[in-house]
Design goal:
68 residues, mainly alpha, two-stranded antiparallel sheet
Length: 68
């Protein structure tokens, strides 16, 4: 597992970091500062995977009962 500061990252956080990097790479390739400026914003599979990674990182993979 990776470490940031003294905290070990769990598999959900590691995957989230990977998705963040992929999303930022895509934004750089398209010269965008935000996904919302992209023509594929609502249909983007990468963005959907990122949103799922954020949810799973916050809920640690548990389904249901999670509130923002």
């Amino acid at each position: 597992m990776q470490k940031t500061n003294t905290k070990e990252l769990d598999k959900f956080e590691v995957y989230l970091n990977e998705m963040i990097n992929k999303l930022q790479d895509c934004q750089r390739e398209k010269s965008l500062k935000s996904c919302s400026s992209c023509e594929f914003y609502l249909k983007c599979e990468l963005r959907s995977e990122y949103v799922s990674a954020v949810y799973n990182s916050m809920s640690k993979g548990d389904t249901g009962g999670f509130e923002f």
